[in-house]
Amino acid sequence: MGTWAPITLARLNELIEEQLLDCNEDVRAIFEKYRVTPVRAAVDRGVGIEYVFVVAQNGEEAMYFEDVEEGFNFSRLGVDGSILEPGYEQDPLKWALRRWQ
After folding, report:
1. Per-residue pLDDT of the chain in tens (101 residues, 90 and over written 9)
2. What secondary structure letter does DSSP report for 77?
3. DSSP string, 56-76
4. Based on the number of CB atoms within 10 Å of its own CB, is 88 exposed (0-12), middle (13-18) or buried (19 or more)?
5. Would you call 100 helix, strand, or coil by DSSP?
6. pTM of the entire structure?
C-alpha cells in the first residue's frame, strides 16, 4: 500500500476532464459557467492547515476538490481565500454540479 500524497494540479486537471466525460451536456455547461483556474486554498480540518484546490465558484460559494476523500465539496471562502466551512459531500463532479442547476 502506497503512502498518501496530495493531488497535483496536473492530476486534478486530468481527473476533471475524465469526470466531465461522464457528465451530460447540461452539467458540463454548469461547470464551464462557474469554472475557475484551480487555486490552492487553505483548509483547517481540525488537525492543522492543509490545502485543497478550488475549481469553481458561484458567488460566495466555491466548489473544491478534497483529495483526502477524493470528492468535490462546497464552502464559502474567507477574505484570504481559505475554506471557511469544510464540506463532507465527497461527490463526483457530475453529482456536485447539480447543486448549481
Report:
1. 568 788 999 999 999 999 999 999 999 999 999 999 999 999 987 888 999 999 999 998 999 999 888 899 999 999 999 999 988 888 999 999 999 98
2. B
3. EEETTEEEEEETTTTEEEEEE
4. exposed
5. helix
6. 0.92
Q: 52: exposed, middle or buried (C-beta count within 10 Å: 0-12, 13-18, 19+)?
A: buried
Q: Which helix (DSSP H) or strand (DSSP E) does residue 30 occupy?
A: helix 25-34
Q: What is d(CA 43, CA 72) in angstroms, rounded to the nearest whole number?
A: 14
Length of the chain: 101
Spatial strand order in the sheet of 35-44:
35-44, 49-58, 61-66, 71-76
Q: Report the C-alpha gap between 58 and 92 in whole angstroms.
A: 18
CA distances from 61 to 47, 48, 86 (A): 24, 23, 11
Which domains, and CATH codes, for the chain? 9-100 (2.30.30)
Task: Give Dmax (Cα) for the chain.
Answer: 40
